[in-house]
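Subject: two folds for Thursday's group meeting

Dear M.,

Sorry for the delay on this. The cluster queue was jammed most of the week, so I only got both jobs back this morning. I'm pasting them in the order they finished. Each block is the input sequence followed by the predicted structure tokens. Could you check whether the formatting survives your parser before we put anything on slides? The first protein is the one we discussed after the seminar.
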Amino acid sequence: MKHFIATTLAVVMIASTAFAAEVKSGLQAGADIGAFYVTKVAGADDDGVKTKANLCYRCKNGKRPQVMVFTRSSDDKVVNLIDQLDAAITKNEAKQLRAFVNVLGDSRSVANKGVKSIASASKAKHVPFVLPNEYENGPDNYQLNPEAEVTILICNNHKVVSSHAVASAKELDVKKILESVTSSLK
């Protein structure tokens, strides 16, 4: 009996460690994506939106497939994801794939510095970097978890196709996210 209890405890501890990195954040598959306003800070020089403009990028993108990145981090993995999304936009020009990066922070000035930092680290040409009006935790109607350092929503036709979130940007699985983007285009 002692052996059974010890084995069961070990399995539970291993399982809880394995799932510790997973975080539920943001709207889930099938949910409608609502409007929210942001200020464009950098990027996507060819999208017709001037920097400092306040707009709804979700609205601008319409029913097109789009990837919304909400991040509190400018970690190399986040920058790599953005650069990979930029390449996917170019590759899927006929399908009109769009993406935009929302940088979150405890204060407007911290978030604004974060936007500039991540935009300058990225090589992306087609991805706008924005500061959401609700900069602390993103739009209320998007249910972002404050414990998630990065939340990615992959959407098409005004609905969430898939959602990915991690407690630490270092845990981002860029390949898995890009596979989700590709499957959302079918």
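Second protein, same layout:
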Amino acid sequence: MNALPNPLDFRRRVPGRGFVRAVWWDFCAFLCWSYLKLSFRLRRLHRERVPKTGAILVISNHQSFLDPMVNGVTVWDRQFTALARDSLFVGPFGWILRSVSARPIKREGGDLEAMKMAIAELEAGRVVIIYPEGTRSPDGSMQDFKRGVLLLLKRVKPTVLPMGVEGTFDAWPRGRKLPRASGKVVCVCGEPISGEELAKLDSADALAAMHAAVSKAHEEAREYRARWVGGAR
């Protein structure tokens, strides 16, 4: 395991947030990492690609309810805000989600207030993760991206960090109430992309470029896991 992030470095890691928030994030991240490592032998590749400073828009494929945990412990050093479907924000679980900066978004038609919040987070130099497919994959494969991601790109022009996750569909597919007890999960950080450069493209080309970057990271994760499951790793 890499060295744990330093909570005293919170001004770089999560600008405008306090020490207590950084400590709570690290505690929750450690619990998530422990669970994912013990149950699914999580492997995180190219974590050095996560920018140390500045606004980052993390975009990832979406296979499972496990994905936010997987993405979160992969970019552990930079606490992020996640946009999650509003039906999850109920009871104690909803409180936990909010405490680690997750925010609800309506599945149908989007949520203007949530997008405004995401823009504010990026403008403050923090990190936001979204799943441009809009919902979990029905079969584990990547789906087309929705256009909502373009609003964040055009308004703020953050660095875009593509990520690819593989194995979470097998661990907890749609339609299954609880995750399986074990499995193998891989998360790959792609090469960061300049938001300024993406914003110069027309909407269709920018969306295609982001989809291609996530697809490349996902393919690397898929190939790595295939070798791993096959016994080569």
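Two things I noticed about the second structure. The mean pLDDT is 91. The longest strand covers residues 159-166.

Cheers,
T.
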